[in-house]
Amino acid sequence: MKYNLLLVLFAGRLAAQDPAPPSGYRWDFYPDLPPPVAVTNDGRLVGADYLFTPGQPRFAIAFPGANSTAARDGNSSGAVVGSYSDATGTHGFLRGGNGVYTAVNYPASTSTTLLAINDNGAILGTAMLGGTLRYFLRTAAGAFQLLDPANYDGAYVDLNNSGILLGVKSFAFGIGLNQAVSLVTPGQPPVPTLTCGGTRGGTLRIAFNDRNDYLVDCISVGAGFFQTRQRYVQFANGESVTLFNYSANSTSYSLASIAGINAARQIAGTGQILNGSASTVLLTPCVADASVPSIRVLGTGGSGVVRVLTEPGCRPTVATPQYWITHSQPGAGPGTISYSIPANTDAGARTGTLRIGRTAITVLQDALPADSCVNVFTAERSVFPASGGQGVFGFSAGSCPWTLTGVPSWITVTGGNNGSGYGNREFTVAPNTTAITRTATITAGSLQVRITQLAASDCSALVSASSITLGSFEGIESGLDVVANPSCAWRATSAVPWLQLSDNYSGPAAASVDGSGSRNLYLKHDQNNQSYPRAATVAVGSTTVAITQQGRTFPLSFVPLLPCRVADTRPEGNKQPAYGPPSLAAQGIRSFSITAAACGVPLSASAVVLNITVVPKGPLAFLTAWPAGQPQPLASTLNSFRGRVVANAAVVPLGANGAVSLYASHDTDVVIDVNGYFASDNTALAFYSVNPCRVADTRAGSGKTGEFGAPGIPIGGGTRSFRLPAGNCAIPPEAKALSLNLTAVPAGYLAYVSMWPTGQEQPFVSTLNSWDGQVVANAAIIPAGTDGAVSIYSPNATDLVLDVNGYFAPLRAGGLRFYPLTPCRVTDTRNPGTGGPLPGQAPRTINVFASNCGSAPDAKAYSLNFTAVPPGPLGYLTAWPTGVLQPLVSILNSLLGDVVANAALVPAGTAANIDIFGSNTTDVIIDLNGFYLP
Question: For the whole prediction, is pTM greater than 0.70?
């Protein structure tokens, strides 16, 4: 489905004294438009007797020859459905996008009404059959399908593009006990949603969209009298925005009625202006960005100001998941927000996110130094017209003093040119009355900022940014600031058809825009359906701005490989310079091209399955892996605070040159093995999840026998093989690769354990290590060998525990494909607002989608990395799909109370959630690197 926010009209905006819109929204009023009944995915308003596209004439809806017509819904093709009455009764109608009306009557029905139509052309309706009201679906091809009343005993009110119906147990706004609401997929049991409680109360959700966002009308009533009422939109990630509140005899509202919500999250309804008159309202999400992509702060802390870029009247959302970042809330329209970061109390550097509208600002804070005088010096705005203006310098200098040098007389710094530590100083650029464009290079410590101001007679056009990065989606960006003197004309031109320009967010876009003076240009871009980025340029006068649009993520299938060593930075690793020494230096980054290594990963691969082993020089706080060429994410792959050899599996998207980047907090050697890759190839393997299940346990008394039980590997070493299809864990013979978790319970020193497909030659790789003899677990995706078996070798005595959570096989019904993500933090229970540490012996449900990491609300499985930070011994940590019984499996163990990480592929359960459980109290960090969908 495509929708175009350019259709929204700015005219009719509320006056300044009228109530502010909800956070994250702006509103447009249409006083001459009757109340709407729906809003389509492309922003059209549907009323009972009209179809209206903002900025275009209103079309009357009237079935030819009918006594009356009542429209109910419309779609992005301009089609409208509803009912009309004539001398023969009530009939359904379809008005096509071409304006042609067609009567739609259910066969043998005495009365038909059409309630909803989706963008595919499917229609929801009601029909009177033998005196009974029945609900039906009409396919885009015109076939009718009655909905079984036994499938849902309420009323259907809406239909989305996936064919899912919204149902309510009662239409009544009045008194009723806990009126229930459900999502219904024809032929499947309904999925209940929330209800509105109270002494006597009910809920009516009148509309939803393809994201599973809902419009809610919630009523709570007392003993026979009206008490409270709420209308709000509830988003799929659990957040909500209040649209109307009524309590006792007072009111505070944004919308007096609500009609519909579309895929662009626009909300249609009826509002009330302060003078008491009603008007149709369209609430549209604010388009908001921040002026900077990242903020860096010293370990001693810092504060600053970020400019908010948005349209007049918009009040964008500002949020952060990190407890150590505090910020102010913005006002309506363009402006600034302030942030503050305390001294870093973590063991090393830390990374966070401050989200302003659509921009996720990466916040990087150094480790707290014993004594630091490192300067950070930036200017929030660096180009000015002849008329001058204001800007902000940002500083971070630990506890050291700083002095600004090179400040000319035409720049005045509020508060003076001297200071210390961190913070901001506003500066003012005076008008330039000379005939010369002037520049100033201002120095603080060892860093410089260049300020440029046009001359009064200079008709050049300056651009604030030399490069801009766009998302892969279709949309419009407001990130190109052109600076020129008021009377000076300029032309901005795009050289590619997928990128057009506009000087008005709601106005038309074209390949070129003529303008004068200083203004913001909007970049309107099509969706990039390629898996790789594409480039363009925008010329503004004699200045060229480089534009990069990110590639789209495609569903990927899996290709298993015999485990192969990619890199080994140890001197004895015998690898060439690109894959060998030197070691990773503390706080350093190295990138390794996986596709260029001789391990069979092709250029078409989009993500790889790796096993990463660290051999640290001492304590290693964390190591992070991510796609090369992208900013370092807030995520960790493994930890070794004791300086032990530690291995962990990782699914990592490939970045520039088919490479992955590694960051180490401290000096360490790294060994990288690859087990397979994901590519956009329908002939490759799909994933099939199973509830986590224990296949083998070689410990005496485990309850496992034969090839899945004792004995373990003896002193002197040996090999065990396990045929997973014979292991009573629902692994079929056609499985070509297996998603496993291997736990070693060694008798003492364990040099390494290697796992590979049975029947193949043992490869020169390792799966895990335990040099101090501790219980260690690691995840792995391994090709299935002879009879679906895997072989495991250890040179030292150890027991083995093998758990399985899924398999890969040729695509068929139920198969899932992978959507990779740059590693992203789902939760960190050390942070406020996350529920605190996981109590021992008490499960907790994790809403992965609510983390805003980019997963889908209907994901079927997740590729995750778990890190346990226990205060003492932790027997084990496990995870499983919400809604099923806790299985007898483990993800990781930490009997010494160490920080331990391990990857896991966890099926999603009820509401796409997972459950976690620890045998003892522990903090838990969960990072997401991808998800699976059909």
Answer: no
3-state DSSP assignment of residue 275: coil
Structural contact between residues 260 and 214, judged by C-beta atoms closer than 8 angstroms: no
Tokens of 60: 């009357």
**Tokens 């779609």 -> residue:** 75
Report yes or no: 133 and 156 within 8 Å, Cβ to Cβ: no
Q: What is the pLDDT of residues 34-50, one digit of tens each?
A: 889 999 988 899 999 99
Give CA–CA dist 160/122, Å, rounded. 9
Q: Comparing C-alpha atoms, which of 239, 327, 264, 336 is closest to residue 44?
A: 264
User: Are the C-beta atoms of residues 866 and 902 closer than 8 Å to each other?
Assistant: yes
Distance CA 894, CA 777 (A): 10
Residue 680 contacts residue 606 (beta carbons within 8 Å):
yes
Q: Which residues pair with 539 in a beta bridge?
A: 493, 544
- What is the SS3 assignment for 395-450? EEEEEEEEEEECCCCCEEECCCCEEEEEEEEEEEECCCCCCCCEEEEEEECCEEEE
Residue 63 DSSP code: -
Task: Note the pLDDT tens digit of each residue in 511-565.
Answer: 999 988 888 888 888 876 554 567 788 998 888 888 877 665 667 889 988 888 8
Shortest CA distance to 547 belongs to which of 595, 510, 592, 498? Answer: 498
Q: Contact at 8 Å (CB) between 636 and 614?
A: no
What are residue 934's DSSP bridge partners?
none
Q: Which two tokens stand for residue 416?
A: 């003076």
CA distance 510 to 506: 13
Among 431, 474, 436, 469, which Cα is nearest to 455's? 436
Contact 479/471 with Cβ under 8 angstroms? no
434 pLDDT exceeds 60?
A: yes
